[in-house]
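When time allows, look over one protein, given below as sequence and tokens. The question is which stretches look regular and which look disordered:
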Amino acid sequence: MKGKLLILLIIPLFITYSCKNGSRKNDDFVFPENDSIPLSEVGMLSKEAIADISKNIASPVEIANLLLMLEVPFSPSYLASGLDANQQSTAYDKALALGILGADLGYLNMYEMTGTSVDMLSSIKKLAEGINVGQFFDFETIKNLSINKDNLDSLLYLSIDSYNQIDEYLRANDRGHLSALMIIGVWLEGQYLATQVVSDYPDPILRDRIGEQKIILNDLILLASQYCDRDPQFKDLCGYLEDIKKAFLEVKITYTLGEPVSEERNGGLVVTQTETSVVEMTDQQLGDIIAVTKTVRDKLITNN
């Protein structure tokens, strides 16, 4: 299916590496099976490139917004209810849990489930303070906005901005491993939400967005790879990401890179990049992705 919906789809670094030396502007580009940057080249990535990966993946409300647009009913069964903030003892556990609960908070806020979101804010506050980044959350303002339901845009902006500031702060202070964990947590919980929903509501747009995560997953593995030997927990996490990648191996994605579109807005020139994508994914492949995503996510939220 072709689509221009970019709620979950972020064109990753791999396109830059593959196309920066070419002149293909209107040709179809098919990602090969081995579509990741070799780990030996990780050191070649600039801080700016790593920052781009972080910013492109870290929004905790994107998947929730997609589900709302598709008119999927809210379900508390999708939440990481087995994740207890009080049981997260290490910085690794806290950063990963912070990302997972951030995605859930976005889901709750999009559906205006204020009572549950206030409870979750308490857990997020504890986790953020546990890794010394609580200063980036204006908890009282976010809490009040959640309760009043009057300004969803402000609530979502504050929530996303808080996570972006945490990410930037951690990377700037040589704590990039915690930033990577938070980002992986956001992505994994978003992918879990999408795969659980598509099982109950098999929408073709959502199906394509899930398939497109093959490319984003490669960026996540690239981001995590520099920390895989840091400790046993990180090594296990890197293994889990590789398990998910195996399920995506035969999924094929084709991008058609279109000509930029220029238009005048408010007296200035705005250039918009255009592209379409086609995802080829069988029901069996989707089923494998759903299964492995659930297995990995359940292990992480129960600390097993």
Remarks:
- Residues 42-247+283-301 form one domain.
